[in-house]
Amino acid sequence: MDRWVGKVAVVTGTSSGIGAAIAKDLAKAGMVVVGLARRVERTEALKEELPESARDRLHAVKCDVSKEEEILKSFKWVEEKFGGVDVMINNAGIGRQTDLLEVGNTEMLREVLDTNVMGLVLCSREAYQSMKKRSVDGHIIHINSVAGHKVINFPKMNIYTGSKYAVTGITETMMNELRNAGTKIKVTSISPGAVKTEIMPEAMRNGNFPMLEAEDISEAVLYALGTPPRVQIQELTIRPVGETF
Question: Which keywords has UniProt assigned to this entry (predicted)?
Answer without folding.
Answer: Oxidoreductase
